[in-house]
Amino acid sequence: MSDTSALILSGSIGQGHSSVAEACQATLGRLSVSSETVDCMRLLGGGASRAGMAAFRRLLAVPSVYDAFHFSHLRTGTWIPRAMERASDRRLVPELRARLGGRTLLLPVFPTGVSAAAALKAETSSPISVAVFCTDACAHRMWVHPGVDVYIVCSELAALSVLRYDAHASVAIVPPPVRPGFFDAPGRAAAREALAIPADASCVLVMGGGWGLGPLVESAEALVDAGYWVLAVAGKNRHVERRLHAAARARPHLRAFGFTDRVPALMSAADTVVTSPGQTCHEARVMGKWLVLLDTVPGHGRENALHELETGGALSCSPDAGAVTAAVRVMFQECPELPPWPIRSAEDWDKHLVGALAGAGIEIPERPGACGGGQVPDVPATRPFRVRPER
After folding, report:
1. Distance of CA 197 to the CA centre of its chain
2. Which of 68, 169, 334, 374 is spaced 20 to 30 Å from 195 by Cα?
3. pLDDT digits (tens, 9 = 90+) for 157-182
4. Rounded to two decimals, what is the model's pTM?
5. Does domain 6-179+345-374 have CATH number 3.30.70?
């Protein structure tokens, strides 16, 4: 394709998918590729969207039930996820068809969008490519469908999980996408000065994703009482935000935030990041921060946590204030070596996306200065990196 334009399919369950979509849209913008991001959950319609969100929250509230659903149904592709896909496709495909226009690339970063994208490609006479971007440690069955041109993942483990469902799939491994703000964050000294945190203080950033999951208030209070300065982010959880602000009034070393765009600066000011496993981990690693992983997200969250532990510079702990404080203390005592981030800028990552798409025959128009003059990176020829494999 010589004139690529993209429709990015995201989903508003948590904040991670939105962050990935934002990073991809920023890259496409730097490459002068027009793109639009749509929220698959919203496109399902008010009632269906609310029902889906409520069901997901209930599953998360009972980890053993969510684990059973993830490992016994999503992983294996039983009739339950197939029925979910059929129901969502009935709503999503017409909505996406109406928004497609002349776009030539569908880029799902959310599993519900993959089936709809594949179905839309199958019914459309004009040439459309589908590139699925999964940043989880493992892909489950809903991520993989016939008609997908390339699966873009962030590890060999994830690539092999795709091949479980389609042994002939084209798979490309790239560094995780991270929003530009984390490459361009203020320095540690400036960030601390803006937050009135001493330069020599031991500082911890406590987060729980977009939904503010886990014992954020209790952990923040316990860490302050243990002698740390704490930045605590409630995300979109208004109840937790109110409790954090109340706790901050009684503890001068605690800074409380709701949903904020200041996370890059907060990470810059902190030494360690306490968070649930997901996109926040990639953002923290860009900035060279130690990770303490809250075991709050079952299913795919457990897979992500194990992969982060394997990567290094991370500890996992139970979701209670005592365990969090103990893990943070170990981090400051042992100061583990942090694995280097493979790229230095958002523009460096652009090259990897271009390479992943080009290997599957999806062309991004070149422009002077883009991606180092159109050069794509040398991607290790590991077994899972297979674009256009022989069939």
Report:
1. 29
2. 334
3. 999 999 999 999 999 999 999 999 99
4. 0.90
5. no
